[in-house]
Amino acid sequence: MVKMDTEDSSRRRTRSACKRSVLRDAPANSKGSGVLRSLSVGNFDDQEAMEDDGECPKHGQPGRRVMAPRYSLLREVGRGSYGVVYEAVARRSGARVAVKKLRCDAPENVELALAEFWALTSLDRRHENVVQLEECVLQKSGVAQKMSHGNKRSRQYLRLVETSLKGERVLGCPEEPCYLWFVMEFCEGGDLNQFILSRRPDPQTNTSFMVQMSRAVAFLHQNNIVHRDLKPDNILISERSGVPVLKVADFGLSKVCAGFGSGPGGKDRDGGEQGNKNVNVNKCWLSSACGSDFYMAPEVWEGHYTAKADIFALGIIIWAMIERITFIDAESKRELLGTYVRQGADIVPVGEALLENPKMVLSIPQRRRSHMSDALRKLLQDMLAVNPQDRPDAFELQSRMGQVTCAA
Where is the signal peptide (predicted)? Predict the structure, then answer.
Protein backbone atom coordinates (compact mmCIF):
# COMPACT_ATOMS: atom_id res chain seq x y z
CA MET A 1 0.00 0.00 0.00
CA VAL A 2 1.38 3.36 -1.02
CA LYS A 3 1.29 6.21 1.47
CA MET A 4 0.16 9.67 0.47
CA ASP A 5 2.98 12.17 -0.19
CA THR A 6 2.66 14.44 2.86
CA GLU A 7 0.39 13.36 5.66
CA ASP A 8 -1.12 16.68 6.75
CA SER A 9 -1.74 18.29 3.36
CA SER A 10 -2.82 15.00 1.86
CA ARG A 11 -5.24 14.37 4.72
CA ARG A 12 -6.80 17.78 4.15
CA ARG A 13 -7.16 17.11 0.44
CA THR A 14 -8.80 13.76 1.05
CA ARG A 15 -11.15 15.10 3.70
CA SER A 16 -12.31 17.82 1.33
CA ALA A 17 -12.89 15.24 -1.38
CA CYS A 18 -15.00 13.02 0.85
CA LYS A 19 -18.73 13.55 0.51
CA ARG A 20 -20.80 13.14 3.65
CA SER A 21 -24.39 12.01 3.93
CA VAL A 22 -26.32 15.21 4.13
CA LEU A 23 -29.64 14.26 5.72
CA ARG A 24 -29.36 14.52 9.50
CA ASP A 25 -31.80 14.92 12.34
CA ALA A 26 -33.38 18.33 12.09
CA PRO A 27 -32.64 20.57 15.07
CA ALA A 28 -35.68 21.36 17.15
CA ASN A 29 -35.28 25.09 16.56
CA SER A 30 -34.80 24.88 12.79
CA LYS A 31 -36.75 27.53 10.93
CA GLY A 32 -39.52 26.47 8.63
CA SER A 33 -39.70 26.99 4.91
CA GLY A 34 -42.54 26.71 2.46
CA VAL A 35 -42.92 23.10 1.39
CA LEU A 36 -45.27 21.20 -0.85
CA ARG A 37 -47.95 19.91 1.47
CA SER A 38 -49.68 17.54 -0.93
CA LEU A 39 -47.91 15.01 -3.09
CA SER A 40 -50.20 13.96 -5.89
CA VAL A 41 -49.00 11.54 -8.52
CA GLY A 42 -50.92 10.06 -11.37
CA ASN A 43 -49.60 7.63 -14.00
CA PHE A 44 -47.09 8.77 -16.58
CA ASP A 45 -49.63 10.14 -18.99
CA ASP A 46 -51.89 11.66 -16.36
CA GLN A 47 -49.72 14.33 -14.75
CA GLU A 48 -51.21 16.23 -11.83
CA ALA A 49 -50.08 19.42 -10.14
CA MET A 50 -48.71 19.51 -6.61
CA GLU A 51 -50.08 22.17 -4.32
CA ASP A 52 -48.00 24.54 -2.23
CA ASP A 53 -49.91 24.92 1.02
CA GLY A 54 -47.64 26.70 3.50
CA GLU A 55 -45.44 25.19 6.14
CA CYS A 56 -45.04 21.72 7.55
CA PRO A 57 -44.80 20.94 11.29
CA LYS A 58 -41.24 20.83 12.59
CA HIS A 59 -39.28 17.88 13.92
CA GLY A 60 -40.56 16.88 17.32
CA GLN A 61 -43.82 18.82 17.02
CA PRO A 62 -47.20 17.09 16.63
CA GLY A 63 -48.51 17.55 13.12
CA ARG A 64 -51.98 18.21 11.84
CA ARG A 65 -53.09 16.18 8.88
CA VAL A 66 -53.36 18.09 5.66
CA MET A 67 -55.53 16.26 3.20
CA ALA A 68 -53.87 15.44 -0.10
CA PRO A 69 -54.68 13.23 -3.08
CA ARG A 70 -51.94 10.69 -2.26
CA TYR A 71 -49.84 11.65 0.78
CA SER A 72 -50.11 14.09 3.65
CA LEU A 73 -46.88 15.41 5.14
CA LEU A 74 -47.07 15.32 8.94
CA ARG A 75 -43.74 16.61 10.21
CA GLU A 76 -40.14 17.17 9.25
CA VAL A 77 -37.79 14.51 10.64
CA GLY A 78 -34.50 15.29 8.89
CA ARG A 79 -32.83 18.11 7.01
CA GLY A 80 -29.56 18.56 5.14
CA SER A 81 -27.87 20.80 2.62
CA TYR A 82 -29.80 19.47 -0.35
CA GLY A 83 -32.88 17.72 0.99
CA VAL A 84 -35.55 17.28 3.63
CA VAL A 85 -37.20 14.13 5.02
CA TYR A 86 -40.80 14.12 6.26
CA GLU A 87 -43.01 11.65 8.02
CA ALA A 88 -46.14 11.31 5.91
CA VAL A 89 -49.30 9.25 5.63
CA ALA A 90 -50.80 7.59 2.58
CA ARG A 91 -54.36 8.86 2.33
CA ARG A 92 -55.99 5.69 1.04
CA SER A 93 -54.31 3.09 3.24
CA GLY A 94 -53.42 5.26 6.23
CA ALA A 95 -49.93 3.75 6.18
CA ARG A 96 -47.07 5.90 7.42
CA VAL A 97 -44.28 6.53 4.95
CA ALA A 98 -41.10 8.58 4.78
CA VAL A 99 -40.93 11.19 2.03
CA LYS A 100 -37.52 12.51 1.08
CA LYS A 101 -37.54 15.71 -0.97
CA LEU A 102 -34.29 16.35 -2.86
CA ARG A 103 -33.67 19.60 -4.68
CA CYS A 104 -31.96 19.00 -8.03
CA ASP A 105 -30.60 22.49 -8.62
CA ALA A 106 -26.92 21.60 -9.02
CA PRO A 107 -25.05 18.72 -10.73
CA GLU A 108 -23.73 17.31 -7.44
CA ASN A 109 -27.27 17.18 -6.02
CA VAL A 110 -28.57 15.50 -9.16
CA GLU A 111 -25.78 12.94 -9.00
CA LEU A 112 -26.60 12.00 -5.39
CA ALA A 113 -30.33 11.81 -6.11
CA LEU A 114 -29.89 9.65 -9.20
CA ALA A 115 -27.44 7.36 -7.40
CA GLU A 116 -30.10 6.61 -4.80
CA PHE A 117 -32.79 6.20 -7.45
CA TRP A 118 -30.70 3.86 -9.61
CA ALA A 119 -29.61 1.73 -6.66
CA LEU A 120 -33.09 1.21 -5.24
CA THR A 121 -34.78 0.65 -8.60
CA SER A 122 -32.09 -1.85 -9.69
CA LEU A 123 -33.23 -4.33 -7.03
CA ASP A 124 -35.38 -7.05 -8.56
CA ARG A 125 -36.76 -8.13 -5.20
CA ARG A 126 -37.23 -6.81 -1.69
CA HIS A 127 -35.11 -7.56 1.33
CA GLU A 128 -36.35 -7.03 4.86
CA ASN A 129 -33.07 -5.34 5.86
CA VAL A 130 -32.95 -2.81 3.01
CA VAL A 131 -35.26 0.20 3.06
CA GLN A 132 -38.05 -0.18 0.51
CA LEU A 133 -38.68 2.48 -2.15
CA GLU A 134 -42.40 2.75 -2.86
CA GLU A 135 -42.15 5.29 -5.67
CA CYS A 136 -40.10 8.21 -6.92
CA VAL A 137 -41.63 11.39 -8.33
CA LEU A 138 -39.99 14.06 -10.45
CA GLN A 139 -41.53 17.49 -9.92
CA LYS A 140 -40.78 20.64 -11.89
CA SER A 141 -42.83 23.80 -12.37
CA GLY A 142 -45.66 22.37 -10.27
CA VAL A 143 -46.01 19.25 -12.44
CA ALA A 144 -45.38 15.77 -11.03
CA GLN A 145 -44.23 12.78 -13.04
CA LYS A 146 -43.67 9.25 -11.77
CA MET A 147 -40.08 8.16 -12.35
CA SER A 148 -38.92 4.92 -13.93
CA HIS A 149 -35.33 4.16 -14.83
CA GLY A 150 -34.34 4.73 -18.45
CA ASN A 151 -37.71 6.22 -19.40
CA LYS A 152 -36.95 7.82 -22.75
CA ARG A 153 -40.39 9.43 -22.86
CA SER A 154 -39.46 11.70 -19.97
CA ARG A 155 -37.48 14.69 -21.17
CA GLN A 156 -36.89 15.87 -17.60
CA TYR A 157 -35.48 12.49 -16.56
CA LEU A 158 -33.07 12.46 -19.49
CA ARG A 159 -32.00 16.00 -18.66
CA LEU A 160 -31.30 14.94 -15.09
CA VAL A 161 -29.07 12.15 -16.40
CA GLU A 162 -27.33 14.59 -18.72
CA THR A 163 -26.77 17.01 -15.85
CA SER A 164 -25.20 14.25 -13.76
CA LEU A 165 -22.95 13.02 -16.57
CA LYS A 166 -21.82 16.42 -17.82
CA GLY A 167 -21.49 18.02 -14.40
CA GLU A 168 -23.08 21.24 -15.58
CA ARG A 169 -26.49 22.79 -15.10
CA VAL A 170 -28.86 21.98 -17.96
CA LEU A 171 -32.18 22.13 -16.14
CA GLY A 172 -33.00 25.73 -16.92
CA CYS A 173 -33.66 28.72 -14.69
CA PRO A 174 -33.18 28.52 -10.90
CA GLU A 175 -36.61 30.17 -10.63
CA GLU A 176 -38.08 26.83 -11.76
CA PRO A 177 -36.66 24.41 -9.18
CA CYS A 178 -36.67 20.69 -9.88
CA TYR A 179 -37.23 18.14 -7.09
CA LEU A 180 -37.12 14.40 -6.70
CA TRP A 181 -39.51 12.99 -4.11
CA PHE A 182 -38.67 9.53 -2.74
CA VAL A 183 -41.54 7.74 -0.98
CA MET A 184 -40.15 4.99 1.26
CA GLU A 185 -41.17 2.87 4.19
CA PHE A 186 -41.13 4.74 7.48
CA CYS A 187 -38.84 3.53 10.28
CA GLU A 188 -40.23 4.70 13.60
CA GLY A 189 -37.24 3.44 15.62
CA GLY A 190 -34.89 6.12 14.28
CA ASP A 191 -31.32 5.35 13.29
CA LEU A 192 -28.88 2.91 14.87
CA ASN A 193 -27.23 5.66 16.94
CA GLN A 194 -30.52 6.70 18.53
CA PHE A 195 -31.74 3.16 19.06
CA ILE A 196 -28.60 1.75 20.69
CA LEU A 197 -27.58 4.77 22.77
CA SER A 198 -31.07 5.37 24.20
CA ARG A 199 -31.25 1.85 25.68
CA ARG A 200 -29.32 -0.28 28.11
CA PRO A 201 -26.82 -2.70 26.53
CA ASP A 202 -28.62 -5.77 25.22
CA PRO A 203 -26.47 -8.65 23.89
CA GLN A 204 -29.49 -10.25 22.22
CA THR A 205 -30.25 -7.10 20.21
CA ASN A 206 -26.58 -6.71 19.30
CA THR A 207 -26.46 -10.29 18.04
CA SER A 208 -29.63 -9.81 15.98
CA PHE A 209 -28.36 -6.56 14.47
CA MET A 210 -24.99 -8.09 13.51
CA VAL A 211 -26.76 -10.86 11.61
CA GLN A 212 -29.19 -8.43 9.96
CA MET A 213 -26.42 -6.04 8.87
CA SER A 214 -24.39 -8.84 7.33
CA ARG A 215 -27.47 -10.12 5.48
CA ALA A 216 -28.22 -6.65 4.12
CA VAL A 217 -24.70 -6.09 2.79
CA ALA A 218 -24.62 -9.58 1.25
CA PHE A 219 -27.91 -8.85 -0.51
CA LEU A 220 -26.63 -5.50 -1.84
CA HIS A 221 -23.36 -6.97 -3.08
CA GLN A 222 -25.22 -9.88 -4.66
CA ASN A 223 -27.19 -7.24 -6.57
CA ASN A 224 -23.99 -5.41 -7.61
CA ILE A 225 -24.53 -2.45 -5.28
CA VAL A 226 -21.66 -0.98 -3.26
CA HIS A 227 -23.16 1.28 -0.58
CA ARG A 228 -20.02 3.37 0.09
CA ASP A 229 -21.50 5.22 3.09
CA LEU A 230 -22.39 2.58 5.66
CA LYS A 231 -22.63 4.18 9.10
CA PRO A 232 -25.10 4.16 12.01
CA ASP A 233 -26.85 7.29 10.65
CA ASN A 234 -27.75 5.34 7.51
CA ILE A 235 -29.08 2.26 9.29
CA LEU A 236 -32.71 2.68 10.33
CA ILE A 237 -34.85 0.64 12.71
CA SER A 238 -38.42 -0.51 12.09
CA GLU A 239 -40.46 -1.75 15.04
CA ARG A 240 -43.73 -2.48 13.27
CA SER A 241 -43.41 -6.24 13.76
CA GLY A 242 -42.86 -5.87 17.51
CA VAL A 243 -39.16 -6.68 17.25
CA PRO A 244 -36.54 -4.27 15.90
CA VAL A 245 -35.77 -4.84 12.23
CA LEU A 246 -32.77 -3.09 10.78
CA LYS A 247 -32.98 -1.29 7.40
CA VAL A 248 -29.95 -0.09 5.42
CA ALA A 249 -30.85 3.27 3.86
CA ASP A 250 -29.47 6.39 2.16
CA PHE A 251 -28.00 5.26 -1.15
CA GLY A 252 -26.90 8.72 -2.32
CA LEU A 253 -23.24 7.66 -2.52
CA SER A 254 -23.90 4.10 -3.66
CA LYS A 255 -22.56 2.59 -6.85
CA VAL A 256 -24.35 0.08 -9.07
CA CYS A 257 -21.52 -1.91 -10.63
CA ALA A 258 -23.61 -3.46 -13.39
CA GLY A 259 -26.63 -2.91 -15.56
CA PHE A 260 -26.46 0.79 -16.40
CA GLY A 261 -23.44 1.02 -18.67
CA SER A 262 -22.90 1.23 -22.41
CA GLY A 263 -22.04 -2.42 -22.84
CA PRO A 264 -20.23 -5.46 -21.47
CA GLY A 265 -16.76 -4.74 -20.22
CA GLY A 266 -17.24 -0.97 -20.28
CA LYS A 267 -16.04 1.40 -17.59
CA ASP A 268 -18.06 4.20 -16.08
CA ARG A 269 -16.66 7.57 -15.11
CA ASP A 270 -16.03 6.33 -11.56
CA GLY A 271 -14.03 3.34 -12.69
CA GLY A 272 -16.84 0.80 -12.24
CA GLU A 273 -17.42 -2.02 -14.68
CA GLN A 274 -20.75 -1.67 -16.45
CA GLY A 275 -23.28 -3.62 -18.44
CA ASN A 276 -22.56 -7.09 -17.01
CA LYS A 277 -25.14 -8.54 -14.64
CA ASN A 278 -22.55 -11.03 -13.31
CA VAL A 279 -19.99 -8.48 -12.18
CA ASN A 280 -18.00 -9.44 -9.09
CA VAL A 281 -18.29 -6.30 -6.94
CA ASN A 282 -15.01 -7.23 -5.27
CA LYS A 283 -13.29 -6.72 -8.64
CA CYS A 284 -15.21 -3.58 -9.56
CA TRP A 285 -12.68 -0.82 -8.86
CA LEU A 286 -13.95 2.58 -7.77
CA SER A 287 -12.01 5.80 -7.53
CA SER A 288 -14.14 8.51 -5.89
CA ALA A 289 -12.99 9.03 -2.29
CA CYS A 290 -16.37 9.29 -0.62
CA GLY A 291 -18.04 8.32 2.60
CA SER A 292 -17.81 9.46 6.21
CA ASP A 293 -14.39 9.71 7.85
CA PHE A 294 -14.78 7.36 10.82
CA TYR A 295 -16.10 4.48 8.70
CA MET A 296 -13.86 4.76 5.62
CA ALA A 297 -11.42 1.96 4.79
CA PRO A 298 -7.72 2.81 4.27
CA GLU A 299 -7.95 2.27 0.51
CA VAL A 300 -10.90 4.68 0.23
CA TRP A 301 -8.69 7.48 1.57
CA GLU A 302 -6.37 6.68 -1.35
CA GLY A 303 -9.22 6.58 -3.88
CA HIS A 304 -8.79 3.02 -5.20
CA TYR A 305 -11.13 0.45 -3.69
CA THR A 306 -13.82 -2.19 -4.17
CA ALA A 307 -16.89 -3.43 -2.28
CA LYS A 308 -14.55 -4.66 0.47
CA ALA A 309 -14.73 -1.05 1.75
CA ASP A 310 -18.31 -1.82 2.86
CA ILE A 311 -16.98 -4.74 4.92
CA PHE A 312 -14.53 -2.43 6.70
CA ALA A 313 -17.28 0.10 7.49
CA LEU A 314 -19.48 -2.68 8.85
CA GLY A 315 -16.61 -3.82 11.07
CA ILE A 316 -16.32 -0.33 12.56
CA ILE A 317 -20.08 -0.19 13.20
CA ILE A 318 -20.28 -3.62 14.84
CA TRP A 319 -17.23 -3.02 17.01
CA ALA A 320 -18.63 0.33 18.20
CA MET A 321 -22.08 -1.15 18.81
CA ILE A 322 -20.79 -4.11 20.86
CA GLU A 323 -18.58 -1.95 23.09
CA ARG A 324 -20.71 1.23 22.86
CA ILE A 325 -17.74 3.29 21.68
CA THR A 326 -18.76 6.82 20.68
CA PHE A 327 -17.39 10.17 19.62
CA ILE A 328 -18.88 13.64 19.28
CA ASP A 329 -19.36 14.73 15.67
CA ALA A 330 -17.74 18.14 15.13
CA GLU A 331 -20.49 19.37 12.80
CA SER A 332 -23.72 18.14 14.36
CA LYS A 333 -22.42 17.93 17.98
CA ARG A 334 -24.19 14.57 18.21
CA GLU A 335 -22.84 11.52 20.02
CA LEU A 336 -22.26 8.86 17.37
CA LEU A 337 -21.24 5.22 17.44
CA GLY A 338 -17.77 4.79 15.97
CA THR A 339 -14.34 3.46 16.82
CA TYR A 340 -11.14 5.43 16.44
CA VAL A 341 -7.45 5.54 17.29
CA ARG A 342 -6.07 8.04 19.82
CA GLN A 343 -3.04 10.05 18.73
CA GLY A 344 -2.18 12.31 21.63
CA ALA A 345 -5.15 14.57 22.25
CA ASP A 346 -6.66 13.78 18.84
CA ILE A 347 -8.89 10.94 17.75
CA VAL A 348 -8.21 9.60 14.26
CA PRO A 349 -10.47 7.40 12.11
CA VAL A 350 -9.28 3.80 12.11
CA GLY A 351 -8.95 3.68 8.32
CA GLU A 352 -6.84 6.81 8.23
CA ALA A 353 -4.64 5.56 11.07
CA LEU A 354 -4.09 2.23 9.28
CA LEU A 355 -3.20 4.07 6.09
CA GLU A 356 -0.50 6.01 7.94
CA ASN A 357 0.71 2.92 9.80
CA PRO A 358 -0.28 -0.32 8.02
CA LYS A 359 1.49 -2.44 10.68
CA MET A 360 -0.59 -1.02 13.52
CA VAL A 361 -2.38 -3.66 15.60
CA LEU A 362 -5.91 -2.72 16.61
CA SER A 363 -6.89 -3.25 20.25
CA ILE A 364 -9.96 -5.44 19.85
CA PRO A 365 -11.72 -5.46 22.23
CA GLN A 366 -10.98 -1.95 23.39
CA ARG A 367 -12.53 -2.17 26.83
CA ARG A 368 -10.91 -4.25 29.56
CA ARG A 369 -14.15 -5.76 30.83
CA SER A 370 -15.45 -6.86 27.48
CA HIS A 371 -17.62 -9.93 26.94
CA MET A 372 -16.61 -10.19 23.28
CA SER A 373 -16.02 -13.79 22.23
CA ASP A 374 -12.75 -14.87 20.65
CA ALA A 375 -14.61 -15.80 17.47
CA LEU A 376 -16.15 -12.32 17.15
CA ARG A 377 -12.82 -10.66 17.96
CA LYS A 378 -11.14 -12.65 15.17
CA LEU A 379 -13.95 -11.81 12.74
CA LEU A 380 -13.68 -8.08 13.50
CA GLN A 381 -9.90 -8.20 13.05
CA ASP A 382 -10.41 -9.79 9.64
CA MET A 383 -13.11 -7.27 8.64
CA LEU A 384 -10.77 -4.41 9.59
CA ALA A 385 -7.68 -5.83 7.89
CA VAL A 386 -5.59 -3.10 6.27
CA ASN A 387 -5.33 -5.18 3.08
CA PRO A 388 -8.81 -5.60 1.55
CA GLN A 389 -7.83 -9.00 0.18
CA ASP A 390 -7.51 -10.23 3.75
CA ARG A 391 -11.10 -9.27 4.55
CA PRO A 392 -13.99 -11.69 4.05
CA ASP A 393 -16.36 -10.85 1.23
CA ALA A 394 -20.01 -10.23 2.08
CA PHE A 395 -21.06 -13.84 1.53
CA GLU A 396 -18.27 -15.29 3.65
CA LEU A 397 -19.06 -12.66 6.27
CA GLN A 398 -22.72 -13.69 6.37
CA SER A 399 -21.71 -17.33 6.87
CA ARG A 400 -19.13 -16.57 9.55
CA MET A 401 -21.48 -14.17 11.34
CA GLY A 402 -24.04 -16.96 11.58
CA GLN A 403 -21.44 -19.25 13.14
CA VAL A 404 -20.24 -16.58 15.58
CA THR A 405 -23.71 -15.68 16.77
CA CYS A 406 -24.84 -19.28 17.07
CA ALA A 407 -21.79 -20.07 19.21
CA ALA A 408 -22.58 -17.06 21.40
Answer: none
**Percentage of the chain lying above the pLDDT 70 cut:** 73
Sign of the C-alpha dihedral, residues 302, 169, 259, 121? positive
Which of 25, 229, 268, 293 is catalytic? The answer is 229
Residue 126 has pLDDT above 70, yes or no: yes
Lowest mean pLDDT among 166-170, 290-294, 381-385, 402-406: 166-170
The Cα–Cα gap between 266 and 83 comes to 32
Quick one: 183 exposed, middle or buried, by C-beta within 10 A (0-12, 13-18, 19+)? buried
Beta-carbon contacts of 210 under 8 Å, excluding residues fewer than 6 positions away, are: 318, 321, 401, 404, 405
pTM: 0.81
Task: Calculate helix-pair angle for 308-323, 203-222, nearest 10 degrees.
Answer: 170
Side chain identity, residue 138: L
Total residue length of the chain: 408
pLDDT tens per residue across span 343-364 = 998 999 999 999 999 999 999 9
Give residue 172's pLDDT band: very low, low, confident or very high (50, 70, 90): low
Bridging pattern class, strands 96-103 and 83-90: antiparallel
| Strand pairing category for 178-185 and 245-248 | unpaired
CATH no. for 24-185:
3.30.200.20
Architecture of domain 188-407: Orthogonal Bundle (1.10)
Domain locations along the chain = 24-185, 188-407
Residue 101 annotated as lining a ligand binding site:
yes
Biggest CA-to-CA distance, the chain = 64
Mean pLDDT along residues 253-263:
66
